Amino acid sequence: MSSDVIPVFARFFGSWHVSVGRRAFRARDLQAHYDKQSGVWQSKIDRYGFEAAYADLISRVLCHWRYRVVAREPRVLDAGVGTGAMAAAFAKQLGRPFRLVGVDLSSEMLARVRDRFARSSVQVDLLQADLAALPFADQKFDVVLVAHVLEHLSAPDRVLAELYRVLKPGGVVIACITRRSWMGLMVQMLWRTHRVDIGLAERWLRGAGFVQVRAMSLDKDQAARRWSIGYVARKVGDV
Questions:
Q1: CA angle, corner 47, sides to 183 and 176, nearest 5?
Q2: What is the pLDDT of residue 127?
């Protein structure tokens, strides 16, 4: 199957292998979709309780000794920052200064983040860029956040390789991915995403080199828990 096609169905019938795929959105098409959705995106996040669920997930991650962020003023990359919901949840739970870099394809989403953090003490830099070719040096960030992005990509392995590259040794990635479910199927049909179960998500992360990979439910809100699953992992090395 072509690298720009997202698999939808694949089965063996005796010696026959039947597969169906759907062409992924091109970058400019995905950008246009998110530009169009930017005005209502945060209200959708709030409706399904995602920001509160992100905060609860991040709190549990930061309390775990394996994933604790020890840098005095950590550098945090939000890859596919959207309206900044996951970054805002991280700021609430970390409770100390950090430097945030938000990257997104959508200039309209970045404008929402700029407004959101305008009166915040968080140092924020925003950049419109392709996550598969990040314009950052190796080992730059202590934490990477990536919420509901990987399942949209025709080649999530390329983006995960980039996220691994820019993380410092011992750095932490916190991800949320739409779960494989009937609700997730709606997202797949609308947004042409992968249908991702825990096994596939963990293979993606381990394939990029991450260790101590762990799936974590979004316990704070019932709707968010039904839609998505959280994941946490570390880059090999000492903090």
A1: 55
A2: 96
Among all chains, which residue has been given the structure tokens 């200039």? 107
pLDDT bracket for residue 30 (50, 70, 90): confident
Distance of CA 96 to the CA centre of its chain: 22
189, two tokens? 């049909």
Q: Which two tokens stand for residue 149?
A: 């992005």
Mean of pLDDT values over 122-144: 96
What letter represents residue 223's amino acid? A
Could you tell me if 232 and 61 are in contact, meaning their C-beta atoms sit under 8 angstroms apart? yes
Integer Cα distance of 34 and 113 in angstroms: 13
* Section 147-176 average pLDDT: 94
Residue 1 has a pLDDT of 46
Structural Rg of the chain based on CA atoms: 17
- Taking a C-beta distance cutoff of 8 angstroms, is the pair 114, 126 a contact? yes
Q: Which of 71, 155, 145 is nearest to 104 (CA)?
A: 145
Question: Phi and psi at residue 218, in whole multiples of 5°?
Answer: -90, 85
Whether 144 contacts 166, CB under 8 Å: yes
Scan for tokens 């509160």, then name that residue: 52
* Confidence (pLDDT) at 2: 46
Q: Could you report how far apart the first and last alpha carbons of the chain are, in Å?
A: 39
Fill in the DSSP letter of residue 26.
Answer: P
